[in-house]
Amino acid sequence: xxxxxxxxxxxxxxxxxxxxxxxxxxxxxxxxxxxxxxxxxxxxxxxxxxxxxxxxxxxxxxxxxxxxxxxxxxxxxxxxxxxxxxxxxxxxxxxxxxxxxxxxxxxxxxxxxxxxxxxxxxxxxxxxxxxxxxxxxxxxxxxxxxxxxxxxxxxxxxxxxxxxxxxxxxxxxxxxxxxxxxxxxxxxxxxxxxxxxxxxxxx
Length: 203
Ligand code: 5GP
Prior knowledge:
Blueprint: E1 19-23, H1 30-40, E2 44-46, E3 50-51, E4 66-67, H2 70-78, E5 82-88, E6 91-96, H3 97-105, E7 109-113, H4 116-126, E8 130-136, H5 140-150, H6 155-169, E9 177-180, H7 184-200
Parallel strand pairs: 1-7, 1-8, 2-7, 3-4, 8-9
Antiparallel strand pairs: 3-6, 5-6
Helix pairs in contact: 1-7, 5-6
The structure holds guanosine-5'-monophosphate.
């Protein structure tokens, strides 16, 4: 699909892509939205994180995450392979630095779907050089319903995820944009608009 609003010129070697940090409580639909962007907005790539969390039913190595054990993850931390990493629900998650850098240099816009802790680390490192977007589930009750419908988490895990969602919401003001994922179509269009607006910025 050709996009006339795309002022991302891959032939211009001096141009660098932009980093979009997208956070959302677990179950707010961030994966679907980020996948939509990577497939429908030219010049956008989605970073695939490395995690120690076990693979969920329906997930795929290299599409959802790169799955490693704790020793492998710790080795990667030691080798400084992560742009950021965090411990979420007792598991490690990290953003591969080399993938992000390679794509930014190739003038691609890179999307990181990461938690609030990771987003705040990126904010400290890059400040205004990254765009921060928070995806909101319509209501916590709807989020609960979505997590239950996913049938991949136990009741205890759902409770943990809801508690964290409430905590994460308090970071909303640290983000540049918010998108309410009430309807996937509208939320996707809003996210796409945020990317296009960022490309049109003078600085
Ligand atoms: P899940 O286990 O539901 O896939 O993800 C749990 C949480 O970890 C989500 O908030 C997700 O955004 C976050 N997450 C996924 N990858 C990364 C990463 O590379 N870094 C950080 N900081 N968080 C991540």
